[in-house]
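The following block was generated as part of the benchmark described in Methods. Ligand: zinc ion.
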Amino acid sequence: MTANIRVTIWNEYRHERRSPEVAKIYPEGIHGTLAKALSEKGFTVRTATLDEPEHGLTDEVLENTDVMIWWGHMAHPEVRDEIVQKVYQRVLDGMGLVVLHSGHFSKIFKKLLGTDCDLKWRETNDKERLWVVAPGHPITEGIGDYIELEHEEMYGEPFGIPTPETLVFVSWFTGGEVFRSGCCYTRGQGKIFYFRPGHETLPTYHNPEIQLVISNAVRWANPTATRKLIRGNTPALEK
Ligand code: ZN
């Protein structure tokens, strides 16, 4: 079943090409690391990046994507509005979307959530402990009480998001902050999962537990019962 899920991993892919420090951790790009991990788990994976024509998100790619993963940071404003609109419509029509880390400020995430999505942050290599607060949720399958990351960027509350439909993870940081770090939403027929970890200067996406959560999220967000909706002027069913 997993093999039938078609995943498109979208990455801005700028930090990796500009910073030797980041390139050392992600020589094939963040998308390359995630693509390898998800391929090994049996998903059908393709990647797309900002500097490709249409940001790699042609109509053909969008139509053949069940779940999209999104990582962006320094170039959110460069993502063209007409492409964002197409991704937005695909989510409403049922495509799953997994938004990672600094993707909280992406155009697509803010458009879907409708809030400013702002937060506190600090790059001091805090330890992060992600507590599972929804045990039994499919996204936590195979994860124990918590995931511990020795070093991560801190994100802190208040996070400017609508109240999640299901809150799956809450993070604690050594600096004392907490953060809603795994959040489920539905928009139209599409499922959305926001997952916090993944700062570009740290090897977070090589972590097997982080890879497991992302693959669980892809399976959870995979559209199952979507259909073309009937809208507009409609004849009565009864005489
Ligand atoms: Zn970051």
